[in-house]
Design goal:
Alpha-Beta Plaits, CinA_C (chains A, B), Molybdenum Cofactor Biosythetic Enzyme, Chain A, CinA-like protein (chains A, B), 3 domains, Competence-induced_CinA (chains A, B), five-stranded mixed sheet, Maf protein, CinA_KH (chains A, B), homodimer
Chain lengths: 415, 415
């Protein structure tokens, strides 16, 4: 069975926001065996929306629509959705109650007439109550295609998808299983990988699809398959993945999963009862921010220091001034001192230290823009490496943060 | 004139990546007066791609395609693109040279046959040389619709768009001007705003469009217009925006621009010759990371400390232990001490301090999940406030970081 996603909103088409809803919905639909045929972003325009609905109906069994359900004039989705099915809007008392409750819960002023207009809904639709906003979701099952309209605010959409849409989808549709497994590799380009695995790729069973996903410094290899028998499906993909991993054992670092590298580090260290900390110069808090976005980070992460100004590396962290003067602030000896002293200051077992030139100007460094020295403090000493990450500031920070976490993971996985 | 964007790749439709290319392209096209009619994401599938090309041709004068140009088997865009125009692939010696140069520049091994296959290009296409990757862009001008195919790797796409595509677009098309201006407001819901400005909204000239963009704690109000006369256009939007800002003066904090709030703070302080620093507990580096992603951050930003573990607030930052014990670690007195001591430690004029419970568990705090205390250190003392940001960890961190930067901006704008 196939789904289509339609996201509605001028803000998407003028590039004012990035549409993250589609990726979330696609991933969740895949998990329950539903393949997404197409994602279409259209304007807040009645004619355009109707056209998109017509087109989607041709391919899909399920159409998920987000956006355009707000209480203001620029939002035309609800009326258009209603008209598409030749339906009329009627007041739903349960939505009225929900609006009142929301205003009470969030201690807002009295609801306005516009808020209560959210209770006008298509008479034939099943209403999906929104606990986090005033716009309800709508489920319309007509002519064997199900259309679902959800608000565009991400957390409202996510909540409704999880609580109301997916349980209904699982009940209503006969779905196969979809299984993806993705191997992460570092250090070899996609052409070189393709050449190395060519014989194996040519012999891959027809129902297993291989995709190459290159990005900054890494290539991900994804195997995908769809089928009725979940166990057989997983077994067949897993066994091919084993062969692939074996062939690429020198460059493979693991599989992509729900767990990010920062989360994985936190879990491993928590299990070991050990701790870590960061001293970030050129990455400016990016690594700490990555670490602390996961729940439970505090059980292994002690904290961090961002000695952005060169003098602070000495003042707060205690890196000897003569080392900075002798080797330059962007250097392996300085990175290693930072890592050692970070462990000491934060009383942690491990540490990450970064010093580099993110650009676009050279700052206090002598090297080229993009030069970054990373050191990892461990209970058995320090390891370090110097990198060139190009001349785009954003990419330098991103690559350095990824590489630093990768280096730490390697160290904590040793024992 | 209208454009369409087609992004190609199974990774988008299974939700493995978020399509950020479309937003970037839309924004850049808008800047040169081109409106994007629709964005469509399709699979790495020949038939599906051909269908998308056909559909796009119906509405658009310009079709920008990204993705599927890699050297591996799963990439089918180039052959499909070529076939769509009834063209044949021929070898372009300039691309061969480019591949060789790239391998030399990045000190890679000898190019493989797969890399040289990138030089097979449609005979009728104008080739757009890619300085950062082996896949060239292709510009095809047939039947009065221009189709442009670009690689999907974001920095390769951006480079080609800026250097090769936009200059050609500006030359080839007669374009109007598009002008957007967006007012940022905090503290009032969209319905309440709509009610307050209803009379003005009803009287808005037909060619100016108003949009409401609600998100975490803020509502953005965008006015958009399109026209031939750039000056008249801007004047008419700006004068309406002035009225709007006046009506919402109690909740408006400024206009959305190229400058983010963190960048703006850096600029203002640099001009004043003043500095700032951060002490982030619950925001865990998020604020510092936001600050340091902009070039030039180092001229005003001294650095930061992330005393994630409660004991570190005393040990490194020097917050008296008895204050933490008396008031609890998540409290206004602790936030204020952190802010004061942060200024001292980093020898900065201003500081931001955050302490809170991001959740999902309470940690060392006594309050509810989502409670955050923010203090701003200034040359004239400390200001602070306590907030409830809900129970979603990611949102708590995001809201706290935004609010903290907003509070600092307010302080530095006072004199």
């Amino acid at each position: 069975m196939l789904a289509e996603i339609i996201t509605i909103g001028d803000e998407i088409l003028i590039g004012q926001i990035v549409d993250t809803n589609s990726a979330y919905i696609s991933k969740e639909l895949n998990k329950v065996g539903i393949k997404v045929y197409q994602i279409t972003s259209v304007q807040d325009d009645r004619k355009h929306i109707l056209q998109a609905f017509e087109d989607a109906k041709k391919h899909a069994d399920l159409v998920i629509i987000t956006g355009g359900l707000g209480p203001t004039k620029d939002d035309v989705t609800k009326q258009t959705f209603c008209d598409f099915f030749g339906d009329t809007l009627v007041e739903d008392p349960a939505v009225i109650d929900n609006v009142k409750e929301l205003f009470k819960k969030y201690q807002l002023n009295k609801p306005l007439p516009a808020n209560f207009r959210q209770a006008m809904v298509p008479s034939k639709a099943t209403i999906l109550m929104n606990q986090y906003g005033t716009a309800p979701g709508m489920w319309m099952d007509v002519d064997e295609v199900v259309f679902v309209s959800l608000p565009g605010v991400p957390y409202e959409m996510k909540h409704l998808l999880q609580e109301e849409v997916l349980p209904r989808v699982i009940k209503c549709f006969n779905r196969p299983h979809i299984y993806h497994k993705t191997l992460i590799t570092y250090g070899l380009g996609e052409s070189a990988i393709a050449e190395r695995i060519a014989d194996w790729e040519n012999e891959l069973p027809e129902d297993i699809k291989l995709a190459y996903l290159p990005s900054l410094g890494k290539v991900r290899l994804r195997l995908s398959a769809t089928g009725k028998d979940k166990k057989a499906l997983e077994k067949s993909v897993d066994s091919q993945m084993e062969i692939l991993e074996e062939m690429l054992s020198d460059i493979a670092v693991g599989f992509e999963g729900e767990t990010s590298i920062a989360e994985l580090i936190g879990k491993i260290l928590t299990e070991k009862g050990m701790t870590y900390s960061v001293a970030e110069s050129c990455t400016g808090g990016r690594i700490a921010s990555e670490i602390t976005q996961y729940a439970g980070a505090s059980s292994a992460f002690m904290g961090g220091i961002i000695p952005y100004d060169t003098g602070l590396k000495t003042k707060i962290l205690g890196v000897p001034k003569n080392i900075i003067e002798q080797y330059n602030v962007v250097s392996i000896p300085v990175a290693e001192e930072m890592a050692k002293r970070c462990c000491k200051l934060f009383e942690s077992d491990y540490s990450i230290a970064t010093t580099g030139i993110a650009g676009p100007t050279k700052g206090d460094g002598e090297d080229e823009v993009g030069t970054v020295c990373i050191a990892i403090g461990t209970p058995n000493g320090v390891v370090s490496e110097k990198f060139s990450f190009g001349n785009d500031r954003y990419r330098v920070i991103e690559k350095a943060a990824n590489k630093a976490l990768e280096m730490l993971l390697k160290e904590i996985s040793k024992n």
